[in-house]
């Protein structure tokens, strides 16, 4: 490392807040491409491609702490003890919101007060130091509606995978960022990916289909990802990971994962590599270690059955907050057991999966095709979100109508209790109605009180399943 | 016919979105226009929405994290300034811990909360009642 360390002196804490620290000293793209080439490790895109070709699921943790040495130690420990295929830098909340000065102040006061690694504040030289300290490629995971500064530092750090998108990193995370702004910011990121591809470096761009993580119907998750993927591909992105969150219903989850390559063929140009990524259950997790581990292993099996290229893992400490290294290691090891060649006998009802897939494809088509026909897709997306013809449940942002009410059916699959203003076909709406009515004793329209109770039950699905349901819901 | 309108939101320190969206959904279902300010809404944002929507019948504030007293600290002053003129209804999980404390509810009334509603299903009836008992002369018309 160079001896001049960007931005750590307390004397810089009082600087004008508008400046992006270290931005003036970023190396040119060509230098970063050469750096990655000389780094002696595969890119994230190569790891994903290898996983797909060898028929195994690549494994990746979430991890991020504030201090640089602590972050380096965390990455090294995870690699030494669990050998994940890709490692993560989870970024702190200040950096996500471009509050770089606050990130710096907190870092100087006590790095433990940061809930992730402030990469922009630490600077790209330290990013390279992290990159050089492990053999696995790194991905940046965050939640920024405008990640341009973070992305520039990420590229300069030689990091080859970057999560987010103009819809999926806005609506679940921000209350009042206009969608046109986040779409424009992410288009800038994707254009730089296009330039890097021309220079010979493929950046994996992962889309956050998990959204609010609360009862997200598969066709909503995938429709949002299709729109973001089309925008990314048009801007020049060549490797796209479509992340889908585990609903908990085997057939629905396998069908959703297997639909991702079909959507890619239907809506994306040739030459764009598309990977299915599975997020182990993102909702309310059981507290008992055995129960949590059952759910982790089940999720990993679903990823295998769905043909996912990659799995993002959880830990047995999920119900309690950010896990320690030990739990993270155990979660990775357990998930990787599902890659065992012994488990070839585990199968899923192919006919039921195929049927569910046809419905998911049809619902996604209903939602995205009217948008993809528009000459200005970004403007069409903003307008559709305003009208509710594109929508997500339980949006944090005011820039989605959030008229969708999801609900689990009798089997636990997530359906539309209300599809709001989504342009779903009558057939699709009828099927959702029928599947939900079947799950209700009386079939009458539920009142608000019982709707709240039912939804809380759906959110706490795994607590009930494991007999932990006396705990209060956390939605 | 003029639609009935309410302003809805979750208290400033609270990010619980599910009940908020379900209440908005239910009230829209019975014909209300719902101005939903969503999660993490400070008192001044409720006041701003009241200025933009002087025809709103009530402000409905949800809170599930037990910090409602702190979140509504400025409510009395905001009401005294006239920035919130319609009734304020609060509901949710209103004090930290599993034991509900009557003194905590009393403190909410002193902060300027007009009604406390524990069961969201009771909201429509409470809104009807508040509308039926509101002052005949609309003070809003005189100032706006």
TrEMBL record, chain A:
Pfam family, one: Met_asp_mut_E
Keyword Isomerase part of the UniProt annotation: yes
GO-annotated molecular function: cobalamin binding; methylaspartate mutase activity
UniProt keyword annotations, A-Z: Cobalamin, Cobalt, Isomerase
Gene Ontology terms: biological process: anaerobic L-glutamate catabolic process
Highest taxon, organism lineage: Bacteria
Annotated protein name in UniProt: Methylaspartate mutase
Source organism: Streptomyces misionensis
Biological classification of the source: Bacteria, Bacillati, Actinomycetota, Actinomycetes, Kitasatosporales
From TrEMBL, chain B:
Organism: Streptomyces misionensis
Molecular function (Gene Ontology), one example: metal ion binding
Name listed for the protein in its UniProt record: Glutamate mutase subunit S
InterPro entries on file: Cobalamin-bd, Cobalamin-bd_sf
Span of domain B12-binding: 3-137
Pfam families: B12-binding
């Amino acid at each position: 490392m160079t001896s001049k360390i960007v931005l750590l002196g307390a004397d810089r804490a009082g600087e004008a807040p508008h400046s992006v620290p270290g931005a003036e000293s970023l190396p040119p793209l060509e230098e970063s491409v050469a750096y990655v080439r000389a780094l002696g490790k595969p890119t994230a895109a190569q790891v994903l491609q290898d996983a797909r070709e060898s028929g195994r699921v690549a494994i990746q943790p979430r991890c991020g702490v504030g201090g640089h040495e602590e972050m380096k130690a965390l990455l090294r420990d995870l690699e030494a003890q669990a050998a994940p295929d890709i490692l993560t830098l989870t970024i702190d909340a200040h950096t996500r919101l471009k509050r770089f000065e606050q990130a710096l102040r907190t870092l100087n006061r006590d790095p433990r007060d940061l809930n992730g690694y402030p990469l922009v504040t630490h600077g790209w030289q330290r990013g390279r130091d992290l990159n050089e300290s492990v053999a696995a490629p790194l991905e940046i995971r965050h939640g920024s509606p405008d990640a341009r500064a973070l992305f520039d530092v990420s590229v300069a750090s030689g990091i080859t995978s970057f999560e987010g998108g103009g819809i999926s990193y806005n609506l679940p995370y921000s209350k009042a960022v206009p969608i046109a702004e986040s779409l424009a910011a992410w288009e800038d990121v994707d254009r730089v990916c296009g330039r890097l591809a021309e220079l010979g470096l493929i950046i994996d761009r992962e889309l956050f289909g998990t959204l609010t993580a609360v009862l997200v119907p598969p066709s909503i998750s995938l429709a949002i990802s299709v729109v973001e993927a089309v925008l990314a591909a048009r801007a020049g992105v060549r490797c796209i990971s479509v992340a889908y969150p585990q609903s908990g219903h085997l057939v629905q989850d396998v069908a959703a994962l297997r639909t991702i390559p079909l959507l890619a063929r239907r809506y994306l140009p040739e030459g764009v590599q598309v990977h299915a990524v599975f997020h182990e259950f993102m909702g309310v997790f059981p507290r008992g270690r055995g129960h949590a581990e059952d759910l982790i292993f089940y999720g990993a099996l679903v990823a295998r059955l769905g043909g996912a290229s990659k799995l993002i893992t959880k830990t047995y400490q999920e119900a309690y907050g950010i896990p320690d290294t030990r739990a993270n290691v155990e979660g990775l090891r357990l998930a990787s057991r599902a890659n065992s060649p012994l488990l070839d006998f585990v199968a899923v009802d192919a006919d039921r999966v195929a049927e569910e897939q046809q419905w998911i494809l049809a619902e996604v088509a209903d939602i995205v095709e009217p948008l993809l026909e528009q000459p200005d897709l970004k403007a069409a997306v903003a307008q559709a979100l305003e009208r509710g013809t594109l929508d997500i449940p339980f949006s944090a942002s005011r820039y989605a109508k959030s008229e969708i009410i999801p609900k689990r059916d009798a089997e636990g699959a997530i359906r539309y209790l209300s599809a709001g203003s989504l342009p779903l076909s009558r057939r699709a709406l009828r099927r959702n109605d029928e599947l939900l009515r079947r799950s209700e004793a009386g079939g009458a329209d539920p009142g608000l009180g019982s709707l709240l109770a039912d939804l809380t039950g759906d959110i706490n699905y795994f607590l009930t399943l494991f007999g932990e349901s006396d705990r209060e819901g956390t939605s | 016919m003029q639609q009935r309108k309410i302003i809805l939101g979750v208290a400033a320190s609270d990010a619980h979105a599910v009940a908020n969206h379900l209440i908005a959904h239910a009230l829209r279902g019975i014909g209300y226009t719902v101005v939903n300010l969503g999660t993490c809404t400070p008192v001044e944002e409720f006041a701003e929405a009241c200025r933009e929507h002087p025809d709103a019948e009530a402000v409905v504030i949800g809170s599930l994290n037990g910090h409602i007293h702190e979140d509504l600290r400025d409510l009395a002053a905001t009401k005294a300034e006239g920035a919130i003129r319609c009734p304020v209804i609060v509901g949710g999980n209103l004090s930290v811990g599993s034991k509900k404390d009557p003194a905590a509810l009393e403190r909410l009334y002193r902060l300027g909360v007009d009604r406390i509603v524990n069961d969201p299903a009771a909201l429509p009836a409470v809104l009807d009642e508040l509308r039926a008992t509101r002052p005949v002369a609309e003070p809003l018309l005189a100032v706006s």
